[in-house]
Design goal:
heterodimer; A: alpha+beta; Aldehyde Oxidoreductase, domain 4; Aldehyde Oxidoreductase, domain 3; 3 domains; 7-stranded mixed beta sheet; 5-stranded mixed beta sheet; 18 helices; 27% helix; 24% strand; B: alpha+beta; DNA polymerase, domain 1
Chain lengths: 798, 159
């Protein structure tokens, strides 16, 4: 199935349906006319800044804000004590834990929020921070998750009644007995410890908000960097006791999200309190260090993976033990039923009967978070885990990793396929996709080149990964966040002149929704996409829904947009029948027009029907006027995009320097609505994957200092480190999604790190290396080559 | 203190604190919001604009240091309804997603093409290597600048 052929085009040259179309939203960004939160300036608006803890763990003895309050231009200094009086010192997290808005008793990570200053300018607010005197009594911090459950470990969450250690939860999936039985009977068992270190999404725009509480009307308007404006509105209503009908959350243009902008951060809440206290609009924008040190990080999963197989390379079972470091507050945003997210999709893309995982989560004195950074609710960790251990197995069997994968991939006739941990994969032609990737890469030729290089003492590596994601949460019956079912609404109105507005619950952070969703409606209704305005990111003007993360916009809201357009089309049929004085059943639909079967000249275009619907035309009983509809889409299952990635690297064994020479990515995300946008999503995710594999890490020293707290220390890939991505595609439409689309926003981030690491390990395997943890910086690669690997997440004497 | 600078051909005079960064002057005093701010350490390049014809990270410079100088920002690229070829290239090649790094990238791209009308892929990558994009993986940014090199005076954006 191709999506770009035989699509009619509008007068403006855009596809009326699926195909490459330039983005509607670009016009404002190209002119510097985007409207990001920091671009919002209201009359009388004040600025703010947050005082943060220099310690990872310390008791607050006293806070003296008097000098700050006395500084000219300062309007308010808000502390935990102020908030306690309002019942707002603590807020619920999205995982039914609590998180301090401003610390009252203790600080629990370096960078935690302690006080909030509201002032005339951002410069004065920062000056005032210097004048706040906080006396701390330092406590020993828990920086190593592996030591968090030691009997003598300090208890971080002594604020929680009954909490006597740093335990959060134990969780498991799959059958332990079946798995152990399979391991007992296996010819070969391979085990590997691996760390997916803590990383940070670091969108180019940091987090911020502008809060305006109108003291006369009691209406709160909050411009904020959120990927989930509706969910945030509800949480503000529940937390602050504000009436929900008087809260308007506006998520304007967002400068990248990647899951960093799903949680509610103390700064947002403080800006609201600041506006209530001062009676003026208050802007809060964090700086980059605040973003890296305090907002939602990702991963921090210590995994022990084991794989059992026959000597011929047939996989029999996989088991994984995980130690999950959640930081000081369990604030992960994910469906309630799944505390470890969708990690139990770690069984991957292969056919075997038994699997088991156990996950233990602990508190440490680090910033809270864990689920972010295009991870599809922990599928990044799962995909990395299975794709690394499969490569370890290939090494043990001395088998080509491509051959091993081909031997075990699920076959097309097995779909829908229920995995050993309970997921129902909807569709896939895995081998076909893998063969396309191998062909683009010239896999056999690469292996020949590698052999020649090895003979000359050069270290070239080829790494593969094959990943399957489950995206598009819910179904609402199984998936909710804080009790809010994961279904999304969509409203569509066709105006009398045949131009339409579609209102979404989800919000774009760069994914091109204003174009893609117009194309979905255009495809269903035949209205040119330039005649369809997409409205999103404003809770007063859009229907309720859970927002954009977990690649859910296309699988959930995209389906909602298709369904609402079909509902309008059905209504248009009744109106056309009235206008044509025939029975609705006599009408046939084609290319934006209902016409009489057998008499194609007699028909009404959707635009004519729109005018009919608003006219004095006599409509049949039960048909109200106007041409609009609304739906709430509750997905019947997740969708399961997948792909095969191949990375080629050259490693300098003297310095440990890794050069990514080529990267081939073949994605199958089902129907491609706008291939240009799909490819852009993949490109970005690949760069993120290279970053995580080779350079990005938020590490700590033993005292709790964050060692990745600025872009000087937290390295991100530039145009120099990124190769010229080589993309391919296969298209296996989702059978249960109205247009067959599966979502692609996170695929490349999920799939690419394993390909890079597999390539590097492949390159240096002649030197005796079987595994090395990310990030594969020159130093870490060099140490692995020396046989002296170190913890990549901690700077300690080892 | 008083600073006077010409921004996009218009002279502006403001009373500012000596410590005010140029990026804040442009954004908060002149309300030219296309120049963004993304880090504290001059690593990200979302704040790139031109001072006296050279691209500069405007968070590394005080407004006072731009006194008497010529500043050019992204808002000056288009001539009325007519986009600069670099802007067209970004649109044609899907060189932007969230749009946050885009103004800085385009200002560097325009400068590069003024110096070197036919840059190689490597020269383009080198030119933008002081700037970070988290969305695009750079491929389409490189192609966008290449497109502008290939279409120096095109007036039509095609699909």
């Amino acid at each position: 199935m191709t999506t770009t052929e035989a699509v009619p085009t509008s007068e403006a040259g855009n596809p009326i349906g699926f195909g490459r179309m330039l983005r509607k939203e670009d016009a404002r960004f190209l002119r510097g006319e985007g409207n990001y939160v920091d671009d919002v300036n209201l009359p009388g608006m004040l600025h703010s800044a947050i005082l943060r803890s220099p310690y990872a763990h310390a008791r607050i003895v006293s806070i003296d804000a008097s000098a700050a309050e006395a500084l000219e231009g300062v309007h308010a200094v808000i502390t935990g004590a102020t908030l306690e009086g309002l019942g707002l010192a603590w807020m619920p997290t999205l995982s039914y834990d609590t998180q301090a808005v401003l610390a009252t008793d203790k600080v629990r990570f370096q960078g935690q929020e302690v006080a909030f200053v509201v002032a005339d300018s951002r410069y004065i607010a920062r000056d005032a921070l210097e004048l706040i005197e906080v006396e701390y009594e330092p406590l020993p911090p828990v920086m190593d998750a592996k030591k968090a459950m030691d009997p003598d470990a300090p208890v971080i969450r002594d604020d929680k009644e009954g909490q006597t250690n740093n335990f959060i939860y134990d969780w498991e999936a799959g059958s332990k007995d079946d798995t152990e039985a399979a391991f007992a009977a296996a010819d070969v068992v391979v085990e590997q410890d691996m760390l997916y270190p803590r990383v940070h999404p670091a969108p180019m725009e940091t987090c911020g908000s502008v809060a305006h509480m109108d003291s006369v009307t009691g209406k709160l308007t909050l411009w904020t960097t959120t990927q989930a404006p509706h969910a945030h509105r509800t949480v503000y209503a529940l937390v602050a006791g504000l009436p929900e009908q008087k809260i308007q959350v506006i998520s304007p243009d967002i400068g990248g999200g990647f899951g960093n902008k799903v949680p509610i951060y103390p700064g947002y809440v403080c800006s609201v309190v600041g506006s209530i206290v001062t009676g003026k609009p208050v802007k809060w924008m964090e700086d980059r260090s605040e973003n890296l040190m305090s907002t939602g990080f990702a991963r921090d999963y210590h995994m022990k993976a084991s794989i059992a197989a026959t000597r011929e390379g047939k996989i029999l079972a996989v088991k994984v033990d995980v130690l999950a470091d959640h930081g000081a507050f369990n604030s992960v945003a994910q469906p309630t039923k799944y505390p470890a997210g969708f990690f139990h999709i770690f069984t991957g893309s292969y056919d075997y009967p038994a699997a088991h995982c156990s996950v233990r989560a602990v508190y440490t004195n680090k910033a809270p978070g864990g689920v972010a950074y295009a991870c599809s609710f922990r599928i990044t960790e799962a995909a990395y885990c299975i794709e690394r251990i499969v490569d370890c197995l290939a090494a043990e069997l001395e088998m080509d990793p491509a051959e091993l994968r081909l031997k075990n991939l699920l076959r097309p006739e097995q779909f829908p396929y229920t995995t050993p941990t309970g997921w129902e994969y909807d569709s896939g032609e895995y081998e076909k996709t893998m063969r396309v990737a191998m062909e683009i890469a010239g896999y056999d030729e690469l292996r020949r080149e590698q052999a020649e290089k090895r003979a000359k003492g050069e270290y070239m590596g080829i790494g593969l990964s094959f990943f399957t994601e489950g995206v598009g949460a819910g179904p609402r019956k199984h998936m909710d966040i804080l009790g809010l079912g994961m279904a999304d609404g969509c409203d569509l109105r066709v105006h009398p002149t045949g131009k339409a507005q579609v209102r979404l619950s989800v919000q774009s952070q760069g994914q091109g929704h204003e174009t893609t969703f117009a194309q979905i409606v255009a495809h269903e209704l035949g209205i040119p996409p330039e005649d369809i305005e997409v409205i999103h990111g404003d809770t007063d003007n859009t229907p309720f829904g859970l927002g954009t993360y977990g690649s859910r916009s296309t699988p959930v809201s995209g389906a909602a947009a298709a369904m609402v357009a079909r509902r309008v089309r059905d209504k248009a049929r009744l109106i056309a029948a009235a206008a044509l004085e025939c029975a609705p059943d006599d009408l046939e639909w084609d290319l934006g027009r209902w016409f009489v079967k057998g008499d194609p000249e007699r028909g009404r275009t959707i635009q004519e029907i729109a005018m009919d619907a608003h006219s004095a035309l006599d409509l049949p009983d039960g048909v109200e006027g106007h041409l609009d509809a609304q739906v709430v889409y509750n997905p019947p299952n997740l969708t399961y995009p997948y792909g095969c990635y191949i990375c080629v690297v050259d490693v300098d064994p003297g310095t440990g320097q890794v050069k990514v020479r080529r990267f081939v990515a073949v994605d199958d995300c089902g129907t491609r609505i706008n291939p240009m946008i799909v490819e852009g999503q993949v490109h970005g995710g690949l760069a993120e994957g290279i970053g995580m594999a080779l350079m990005q890490v938020i590490a700590f020293d033993e005292d709790g200092n964050n060692l990745g707290g600025s872009f000087m220390d937290y390295l991100l890939p530039t145009a120099i480190e990124c190769p010229n991505w080589e993309l391919g595609e296969t298209v296996t439409p989702s059978p249960h999604h109205p247009i067959g689309a599966k979502g692609v926003g996170e695929s490349a981030t999920v799939g690419s790190p394993a390909a890079v690491v597999n390539a590097v390990v492949d390159a240096i395997s002649p030197l005796g290396v079987r595994h090395a943890d990310m990030p594969l910086t020159p130093a870490n690669v060099w140490r692995a080559i020396q046989g002296r690997p170190v913890r990549t997440d901690m700077a300690v004497e080892q | 203190m008083q600073v006077t600078m010409t921004v996009n051909g218009v002279e502006h005079t403001r009373e500012v604190e000596p410590r005010m960064l140029l990026v804040h002057f442009i954004r908060d005093e002149l309300l030219l919001r296309g120049t963004h701010w993304g880090c504290d350490t001059s690593n990200c390049g979302t704040c790139v604009l031109w001072v006296d014809g050279e691209p500069v990270k405007s968070c590394t410079m005080l407004a006072a240091m731009a006194d008497g100088r010529e500043v050019r920002t992204v808002e000056s690229l288009a001539q009325g309804a007519e986009l600069d070829p670099v802007q067209k290239g970004f649109m044609e090649c899907h060189g932007l997603q969230c749009g946050f790094c885009t103004p800085g990238m385009m200002m560097t791209g325009r400068w590069l093409l003024d110096q070197n009308p036919n840059p190689s892929e490597g020269e383009i990558r080198e030119a933008i290597s002081g700037q970070i994009c988290r969305c695009t993986g750079y491929k389409n940014i490189v192609e966008a600048i290449q497109w502008a090199a290939d279409n120096p005076a095109t007036s039509e954006v095609t699909s």
